[in-house]
Design a protein that fits this description.
mainly alpha, 62% helix
């Protein structure tokens, strides 16, 4: 593990100390949005750019506490930030818990879910060195889907990249 990845993993593991938030079956969407907003604020750790990016991802994903949305490839998108179940084994290894527990936490614990989104975004930022490439990779490993996703997230953030502008930026070699 690299020296930069260590603090990211350590921060993710500390999430285990945060108690899970019990959610009733009858969803109170206003209370749920407040909870997710608090989780995003806490996960940003005082970094306004991170808070804005997490909010943009949340607005685009449109998930909710308890979400388990099946994808065409058989995977699932879990919780408010729609974390793909592909990540479950990696997070289980990072936190030293079973994949069953991690999948339940991603689905039911808003703050665990947001923390996982932060991890993925920082992981992809570390790999690419570019925030918009990281945003695209958060969504998909497929280049054209990344491009579409970046355009949508940027619109939520008020940046309004058009697809031609982003396509030019995305064709730059990855560092």
């Amino acid at each position: 593990m690299s020296r930069r990845a260590g603090p990211i993993c350590a921060a993710f593991v500390t999430l285990l100390a945060i108690p899970s938030v019990a959610q009733a079956w009858g969803r109170d969407t206003v209370a749920e949005q407040r909870l997710i907003t608090r989780c995003i604020h806490r996960s940003a750790r005082g970094k306004p750019w991170m808070e804005k990016m997490l909010r943009g991802l949340m607005d685009q994903e449109g998930g909710w506490v308890g979400a388990e949305v099946r994808n065409r490839d058989g995977s699932y998108d879990l919780g408010p930030m729609q974390i793909n179940s592909w990540w479950v084994p990696r997070f289980a290894q990072l936190v030293g818990r079973s994949p069953v527990h991690v999948q339940r936490w991603l689905r039911q614990d808003a703050c665990f879910n947001v923390e996982a989104a932060r991890y993925i975004l920082l992981y992809e930022l570390y790999r690419s060195g570019d925030i918009w490439t990281a945003v695209g990779r958060y969504h998909s490993p497929v280049w054209w889907r990344q491009r579409q996703y970046v355009v949508a997230v940027s619109a939520h953030l008020g940046f309004g990249f058009d697809s031609k502008e982003r396509a030019k930026q995305s064709q730059a070699p990855v560092r």
